[in-house]
Amino acid sequence: MFEIDRFSRKPIYEQLIEGFENEVICGDFKEGDVMPSVRALSQMLSVNPNTLQKAFQELERRGICKSSMGSGRYIAKGAMAKVLNLRSSMLNEIVRISYELKTSGIKEELVHEAVRRAYKNDTDVSENKEERKNSEG
Amino acid sequence: MIVASHISKYFGSFAALDDFSCSISDGCIYGLVGSNGAGKSTFLRLISGVYSSEKGEIHIDGEPVFDNMGMKQRIVFVPDELYFLPRCNMQRMAKLYASMYENFSYEKFYRLATTFDLDIKKKINTFSKGMKRQAATVLALSCNADYIMFDETFDGLDPVMRNLLKRILYADICERNSTIIISSHSLRELEDTCDQLAMLHSGRIIFESDVMNLKTSLFKIQVAFSKDYDKDTFKAIDMLHYQKSGSVATMIVRGNRDEVAALIKAMNPLLFEIIPLSLEEVFIYEMDALGYECNEVLL
Amino acid sequence: MKKRLFSFGVYKEIFRRLMGIGIALAALMLLLGMIHVFWLFPGVVYEPGYVSDTVYLLEPNGFMSLLLLPLYVFGIVAVSRAFSFLRKRPGTDFYLSMPVSRTVYYVSASLAIATWMLAVAVAGCLGVCVSSLITGALFNYALLLPMLLTILSTCALIVSVSLISASITGTALMYLLGVIIILFLPRMIFSLVGAALNNVGALLGNSSELFVLFDYSYNVPATLPYGLLFGRFNDDYYINIAASVYTLVHAAILWFIGMLLYKKRKAEAADTPAATAFHQAFFRCACGLPVLVVIPYMLFETFYNTVYYGDAIILLAVSLVMFIGYELLSSRSIKNLIKVLPTYGICIGIAVIMSLTLTALKNFDAGREFTADDISWFSIKSDDGYSTSSYLTLSLEAIRFTDDELKTYIAEGIKTDNPVDGNSIYDITATVQLKNGRSFTTAVYFELDEALGFMKLLRENKDYSELTSYRPELSDISAALIDERLTNEQKQAVIESFIEECGTLPENEIASINIHGMDFGLFGEGDSSAIWAIPSEKSDAAVGIIVDNSEGAIQGEPNKVLLGKLIEPYVQILSIYGTHGYDYCIQQYYLDDTFRETSMLYMQFIREWHENEYETYEYSYFISFTQMVDILMKAPEFHYFRLVLDLSVFAETYGYAPRYELYLDSYRLAEKTGNPNPEYAPVKLNPEYAEILSRAEFSTDPTDYIKINISMLVNGLGDYDMPEAYLKLSKADLARLVELLKEDSEVMYTEYID
After folding, report:
1. Which of B215, B236, C300, C441 could be disulfide-bonded to C209 (CB atoms 3.0-4.6 Å)?
2. Bridge partners of residue C660, in order along the sequence
3. Mutating which of A13, A14, A38, A46 best tests the B interface, going by the most B Cβ atoms within 10 A?
4. What is the CATH number of domain A12-86?
5. Nearest in space to C452 (alpha carbons), one of C429, C426, C431, C414
6. What percent of chain C is helix, strand and coil (3-state, nearest 5)?
7. Around Cβ C70, how many Cβ atoms within 10 Å?
8. Per-residue pLDDT tens for C34-49?
9. CA–CA distances in Å: residue A14 to residues A64, B28, B188, B215
10. Complex ipTM, two decimals?
11. In chain A, which residues fall in CATH 1.10.10.10?
12. pTM for this model (two decimals)
C-alpha cells in the first residue's frame, strides 16, 4: 500500500486518489477486489476518514470503484482502462514539457534518452543533472 | 450539529468573542486557528458549558449547553491547562470521570492507556508534560462522548505521538461518528487532520472553509509569455495576488485547476507551471485579500 | 445514588481527599478529650503508689473550649480542600465542563465533609469517655449527647460559613478573610448593640436574656474566641440543647445560601479576589465596618458622658484605612479605589442606623419606672459565676416571689443605675413579670442595707426557706466524692454524721444569695465540684452536698447514670472537702464549725490514715476558729505561736494601731533564757488570750470586724493554720486584747500610725 507524504504540497486528497489509481494500474487492486474499509485505511495511512470518504466518492465518480449495499466497496469493471485513460492525458504533459525543454535549448536526443531511462525504471535524478552539465559544459 | 449564533463573551470590558457565529457538522474534525487572545479557548469553553455567553447562543442538536447536564454527558473537554486531582493517578481520575460520565468505558480506558504506554497506577504529577496530555486525552476519549474538544493539546507534541493520537481519533470517528474540535496556534499542526478550518482573530471568525476545497481550489501559477502582458490579460481568472518580475508573472488563483490551466494554455505561454500551495500560504493570501496583515493574525 | 442531588463518585473522591485532615483532627480531638488524664494525676507518673485522695468529677465545662477549638481548623481546611479548584482556572474549568451539576457537587461534597465532621466529634466524646475510664473520674454519660450536639452544631456552622466564603471568593487569602468576616462580624455588631443596650437602662438591662442573638451560648463559634479571652460563658453552654438546635438551623440556612451562591458562581471568578463586583463591595465594606461600628457604641456607653470627638475621629480614620487597605490589596489599582470610594457610604449608613436604633431604644426606656404593684411576680437568677448550675440554683429560679415587700425591693432596685465604679453596689439578676403581660430579665442593684434587708426578707419567705432547708436522705445519695483515704465504713460514718448535723442547723444559717462583694453565701463558690454548698457565715469552709436521684452505686463508685437521663444532666454527688486548694504533698481539709462533729470525725479518720501510712505527725492542718479556740483553751505548749491581728477597719476610730503581731518562738525563748535545747523549752500563751477569743463572735459587717490569723505548732498535736477569721469583739474585750498585745514582751512587731 502506498504512503501519504505529509510534507508534500499536494493535498492529501489528491495523493489518495493518485495512490489508489496507482494500485489499480500496477494490479494490486484488481477488478472485483473489495477495498479495505475507511476505518482500516484511515489507521493504515493515518488519514482523516472524511478525507478518505471524499476520495472514494471521487473515485466512484470516475468510475474506478463502486459501492453497493451489503458488499462494500470494490474495484469496478474496467477500472484499469479508465485509469489509463486518465493517465494518458499525462502524455500531453510530455508534449508540453518537451516544448518547454525545446524552448530552453535542450536537444531532442536528451529528451528521448530521458524517456528511455524512465522505462528502464532508472529514475535516479542526480545522474540526469550530471548529464545536463556535460551537455552544456 | 453545533450551531453558534452571534455569540459575544466579555471579560470585564474585553470582548473575547464578538458577534461570533459558526456551525460545525457532526462527524467532522474541526480546527480552530488563531493567535493568543483570538478567542479559540473561549469558544471551546462556551461549547463545553464552562462559560455562558452574554449575547447569542450555542446550541447542540437544538439544545443549549450551559447547565444542561444531559447534553454535557455528550461533551468532553481537554483544556490547555490541564487539571488533575491533587496527587492522583490515572486510575483515580478514571473513577472520577466514570462517576460523572455515564458512557465511560473502563475497557477502552485500559486499552488506550496501554496503547500510549502509560502507567495508570503512577502519580500523574510525575508525568512529563507530553505524557500528561496523553493521559488527559485517554481519559477524555474513554468517556465516549459525541463531541470531543482539544484546546491546543496537539501543539508541541512529538510527531510520533501526534500520529498515534490522530489515528486514535480517526478510529473514534469511524466507530462512533464523533465530532472533534481542535484548536491550535499553528496551521501546520492541523493541516493534515482537519476537515474544516476556521481562522479566528479578535473574537471573530475571519475565514472558514473546508480544508480540501482550500487546498485544491487555491493554487499558484507561474507564467511567462513572449509578448508583453499585464494583469488585465488575466481578468477572466479569479486572482488573489499578482506579481510580475521581468517577464515572469506569479499569480495566486482561485478556481478549478483544470479550467484555469486550459485558459492559460490557450494563451500559448512560454512558461506555465501550477504549484500547489501549503495551507499556510493559502491562509496568508486569503488574509491578505481580506485586508489583514498576516503577522497580525498568525502569531 | 440518583444523579439529581447526589453523586457517589464525587462523595467518594472528596471523602478520600479529606482523609488527611479528618484523621489528623479526629486524633487530636481524641487526645483533647483525654486531657484530664494528663492533668489529673501527675502524681501517678512521678510517685508510683501515690494514693489519690479525691475522686474527681469530669465537668465538660472545663475542657469543652479545648474540644471546640480544633473545629475551626477542621471546618476551614476541609471546605478549602473540597473546593480548592475554585481558586484555580484549570480546576474550575475542569469541573464546570464535567456533566456534574453544581448542586450535585455541592451536596456530595458537603456530605463528605459531614461524614468526617461526625468522626471528629465522636472522637472527641470518645476521648472524654476514655479519660473517665482511665482516671476513674466520674463522668455523667448522659452529657455525651448534648456535648456531641454542641460539637456538631459548632462545626456545622463553621463549615457552612466556610462554604459561603468559598463560593464567593477566588483566592486563599480572600477565603480566610471571608470566613472571619462572615463568622464574626454579625455577632460583633449585635454584641456591640447588646452591650450598648446594657447601658441604656434597666429595662433592657440584661440583653443576653433579651434575644438569642445576644446570648453567647447560641452561635458558639462566633463567640468562643471572645469567651476565651474575657472568660465569659453562659453556664452549661455545652449542654444547652436549644442552643445546639438553633445553631444547626442557622448552619442549615447558611448552607442553603452557600449553595445558591455556588450555583451562581462564574468560572471567571477563579483566582480573583471576589466573585463579582458586588462581592468585592461586600468585602470592602466588611473591612471598614468593624472599627466604625464601635463609634455608635461609644456614644452610648454611659462611661463617656461627653462625646470624645477625638476618639471618634481616630476610629473613623482607622476604619477608612482598613477599607482602603482592602481595596488596594485586592485590586491593586488606585483608579479603582477612587471609583469605589463612595461605597464607604454603606458603612456610614449602617453606623447611622445603629445610632438611630439605640437612640430610639434609649428614649423608649427612659422614664420607665415600676412600683411593686406593677409587678406580678419575680424570680431570682442566681449567678454561680463559673460552675454548673446547681440543683439549688435551678430550683431557686423556679420560685416566683409575690411578696409585696420583696417586690418593692425589686422595683426600687431596678431604678438604681449601675454606677461607674460598682464597688459598693450589690446586684442580683431577676426575671420580672409585669401585670401588663410584659416580662424581662434585668440586673437589680442594691446598696448595702437594701441588700441585707432583702436577704432577711428572703429568708423569711416560705418557699425560699423550704428550698434551702432541703436535706437529702442517705438513700438519695447515689455517689459520693469522698476522700479516698477513708474506708467504706468510715465514709458511711462521715456521711451519716454530716446529714445529722445538717438537721441541726438553724434556718438563718442556710444558703443565701450570693451578694456581690460579700462573703455571704456560696452557691458553688470555690471549687467547681461543689454544686450545692452550705455555707459559711462563720468561716471559709464549705461543704457541698449534691444529690442524685438516679440509680447507681454509692460512695465512691462511679455514677452509673443511665444514658437515658437527658433531662437532668446534673450529676449530684456528695462531696466533702475544703475550699482551699491543695498542695501536692498532702491534702488537708477542714470543715466548718457548723459541722463540728462531722469534721472532728473526719479529721480523726484522716489522722489514723496518716499514722498508718507515714507514722509521723509532721503535717499541718487547716482548722477553723472554733477548733483553734478549743485547742487554746486546753493551754497547750507550743513550739511556736503566731497571731496577727488586723484592726485596720477601725483603728483610727479607736486610736489603735492597724496591725499587731504576736510571735512566740521556742528558739528565741531558749536564747533569751540561755536554754541550750530549744525543743525542750516550749512556750505557753497567756491564758487570757484564749479567754477573750472564746468570746468572739463572727461578723459579717465590714464596718466592725477584726481579722485574725493564727498559726501554731502545738507540741505533740501538730502544725495548725487558721486562716483569716472575721470576728467581732466587745469594746472591752478588744481594748483588753490590745492592751495584752502592747504589754506582751513577745510582741515582735507592730505598726503605728502617726
Report:
1. C441
2. C645, C750
3. A46
4. 1.10.10.10
5. C426
6. 55, 10, 35
7. 21
8. 876 666 554 433 333 3
9. 15, 19, 18, 10
10. 0.85
11. 12-86
12. 0.68
